[in-house]
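Entry 14. Two folds queued back to back today. First construct below, sequence then structure tokens.
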Amino acid sequence: MNKPTIIKSPSGDRLAVIPLAEYERLVEAAEDLADVRAYDDAMRRLKSGEDELVPAEVVNRLLDGENAVRVWREYRRLNLKQLAELAGVSAPFVSQIESAQREGSLDTMRKIAAALKVSLDDLG
């Protein structure tokens, strides 16, 4: 690392002038540090159970437009009756939501999301 040249701005601030290559190296190092911190945070969330790894098969089904309630229910290995009991709604109602015959209210979808251990955003 080269020693910086120190100059004074018109307002009296002391400024360090460094070669552009050194500045670019520092920026790259800061970006690397941010990546390491993001990775460490992601690993902490996985370890604590805040986040989970979702198999590509599940993600692909969601991206293909399959009903999110059905995809998550099947991924959690729940049948309609089990999900309905966990969410406090009827099994036929869950079936109608999955087949797009009916829409669940915000409150109902929150209950279903909680039962499936996903965020409300994951269902919509």
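Second construct, same run, same settings:
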Amino acid sequence: MNLPCTPRVIATLLAVGLAIHPGLARSADVFVSAERVVPSERVAEGVALRDVTVDGGVVSGVLANTSGKVLRDVQLLIQHDWRWRSEFRPGEDNPSRAVYYVVPEEIPPGGQTKFTYRTDPPLPERSDGHFDTSVRVVGFVEVSGAR
């Protein structure tokens, strides 16, 4: 089995192992931080997206933590929507695309961090339309650090 080595996967595997072999768990040895994925309807309450700029395929901005907990794995949805010069006669090759980008830094309560995403592969340069790029926060993990 080839699982990604994220803290969430590690915590889940640890919990399953301890459930199968409870004798392995001693409170002095085991530390699993209390974390939870925030439901999508609460995303706007915990993190603010500010000062977003788009220059070609480079998207940057600032994320501000408006919650009282440490945030990590802030997930952005970056959409590059192609707008045809003539919407009445669109072409057949629509280069629109979307990507989920996870910001690697943790953000302390009341803190902020800058992010920069470079589109890879680069957006094509074309004369039959242009890209409208949008960014929104679609998820994050709250960490409370309990022992």
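Quick look at the second one. The two ends are 29 Å apart (CA to CA). DSSP finds two helices and seven strands in the chain.
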